[in-house]
Amino acid sequence: SCAGLQNLLQRRIFSVKCYSKQNHLQTMCPYSKTEPPKWHILDCSGSTRTHRTVPPGSILPWRFFSCKEGTKIPSKRKQNTSIITSEPLYKNILKSEQEHWNDISARYKAMTKRIKEKLEELHDKYTFNSGSPKIRFGENVYFAENSCVFLSKADDVDDGNVDVLFSTEDLGFSDTFIQRIRISPDQRYMAISLKSDNSEDATCVIMKLGHFPVMEKVIPSVFSFEWATNDVLYYTSQKNLKCQNVFVTTLTNQKHTKLVYTEQDARFFVDIYCTKDRRFLTINSNSKTTSEVWLVNCRHPFQLPALVQARTKGVIYHVEHRNDELYILTTYGEPAEYKLMKAPVASSGMENWQLVYTLEKKTKLVDLELFSDHCVMFLKNAGHLYLYVISLVSHSVQSVKLPAWACEFELESHPEHTTSTCYFQLTSPVHPPKLFAYSFKENNLIEQAVQEVPIITNCHTTRLLAKSKDETLVPITVFHKINSKELHRKPLLVHVYGAYGIDLNMSFKEEKLMLIEEGWILAYCHVRGGGELGLSWHRDGCQHNKLKGLHDLKACIMLLHELGFSQPKYTALAAASAGGVLAGALCNTNPDLLRAVVLQAPFVDVLNTMMKTHLPLTVEEQEEWGNPLADEKSMKYIKSYCPYQNIKPQCYPSVFITAYENDQRIPLTGVLRYVQKLRKAAVDHASRTGTKGNWIPNIILDIQATGSHCDSSWEESLNE
């Protein structure tokens, strides 16, 4: 139940190949002419339509895990080096890989047992800090824990005096976990999305609340949903990773469900958002570079939605509402970064947008929250986090620099926009979430008192700048134990992503703290293609600029080694999903910089995937990678860095890959082809050099029969 525009912003990039919860803002190009409309609005009085739906609310953070050092494998060891050339070989290759995994994973049983026990200990120790967000309605507080939804009075939350409103176990959803909760304005109904580890599909369950809560309705395949009134729910359906239909369902005596909106352009993804003051629902249709918003009047939920501004190529915008004015977060105008504008609801076209606030250069807008008299912006600049509080009455701006250790924020839920305090959590990979508040009355930051285990303070945070091939300075965030000696002998785990304008996930993870305690150095490389320095940072690393991200990564690792942070033989690289492009490319161009690589559901077969338009995401992905089918220049450029295309006989680092049989985003066949070709190249290199007992890297593939590309429960994440 994320608050603010952050949930809206992150959902618009849900379809990308990534593990991300918080990251949100995408790239765009400055203005151009309006595209012809490609949508249909249906009158709510039309006939009832059957509906199918699919969800996962917000995407949970991607998971990185500690690397295992490569081992010497006798050259006589037989490895599977065949390459998939036809579909009939698929099952045989899959079986062979599973046997290889079962054989090699047995070596790590003792280590696995020790790591699992340590992670469980850390999880139990710090889990209180990262409790689920609470939804407050006056004196009532709703929250989810242990697959249940609870209700308590605000004063009784910490006393354990709660009522159980919903239990996945009791209602026959035992293999699912709770993803999102929405409470109707009069608190008579509660809508919950449930998801399993094995699929990206989610189910919406509507409960009628009271002394004995009753399950009122179950809607399959729902992505996003919001209450328009006490008994009218809008929701979007998802099919084959696409979300293009909006429905409205009523829970009165005359129950009915109708189709309201259909998006015709395959590049666009649709979701629903409720403005802070509950005055409007917004139907948001977004591609990676362009967006369009329709308003549903919550006072008249069956009226036709009203268009805010027709889609204009290269212009992204999102809206909030206050006092009959729309506050518009948009990329419209110069500079081509996010800015806050406003316009009257009655005349919301672009020609009436008035500037409220413009971000500074190389500043990333992480989140925005609108209150009755204030707008709160959460910003990143030069690796530091800031709070900007804009008074919508006096127009003054208060800037607050947040603690230096903080790397991520997450807003608490705020159903009541008239509140006088903004609550949020700060965290880092090695710091459990800590609660802070900003008081609008006092104009100051308040660190919330805690009685729990204190935050770890024996970790040092360093921020560096690496000079890339074109002289661009690339930020790096480094963590290591305070007073750690001989850092050049310590193992180093480097993280990279660099796609879709998404920041590296730097929220707290138990395994990161464990590595720090065991002497590791952690480094996060904020390369181009990501969003850490704003929209231009993404533009400089997408399509025909992808190689810049690779050059950035190389420069970061070389600087770390030059400054005495570890050395190549103790260096591992971790990447997930689209981060696999840069990680795999570096393995081909500079394998000598690394000893081990850990990839999770990696995108390593870019060219072949982008040539297959029948795959669900290929068309919309063209705005990130280019279109090799229509543009020969794009084909040659993708081929120049694609990890699979550039494998050659040489001494590779050891590689550990986790993939999922049910992954709808990264085809397993592409990962299998990559592993087979990489293993063959490593063996060919060893045989050509002819040195007895020559070191052959481990190329390990763990294919998970369960799990999916995005969300997973703590238990599933722990097992991996």
Briefly characterize the structure.
The protein has 720 residues and is of the alpha+beta class. Helices cover 19% and strands 33% of the residues.
Describe the structure.
This protein has 720 residues and is α+β, with helices and mostly antiparallel strands. Helices cover 19% and strands 33% of the residues. An 8-stranded mixed sheet has the order 30-31-33-32-34-35-36-37, with helices on both faces. The chain has a 5-stranded antiparallel sheet with strand order 1-13-12-11-10, with no helix packed on it. Among the domains are: 140-262, 7 Propeller (Methylamine Dehydrogenase, Chain H), CATH 2.130.10; 363-452; 460-689 and 697-704, Rossmann fold (3-Layer(aba) Sandwich), CATH 3.40.50.1820. The chain is built from 12 helices and 37 strands.
- Integer-rounded radius of gyration: 25 Å
Given the C-alpha coordinates, what overall shape results? globular
User: How many runs of DSSP E, i.e. beta strands?
Assistant: 37
| Mean pLDDT over the full residue set | 83
Per CATH, the class of the domain at 460-689 and 697-704 reads: Alpha Beta
Order of strands, widest sheet = 30-31-33-32-34-35-36-37
What percent of the residues sit in helical stretches (DSSP H or I)?
A: 10-25%
Number of helices: 12
Strand content: 25-35%
Note the gap between the termini: 26 Å
- The CATH architecture of the domain at 460-689 and 697-704 would be 3-Layer(aba) Sandwich
List keywords for this structure.
Rossmann fold, 12 helices, serine protease, 5-stranded antiparallel sheet, alpha+beta, Methylamine Dehydrogenase, Chain H, 720 residues, hydrolase, serine-type endopeptidase activity
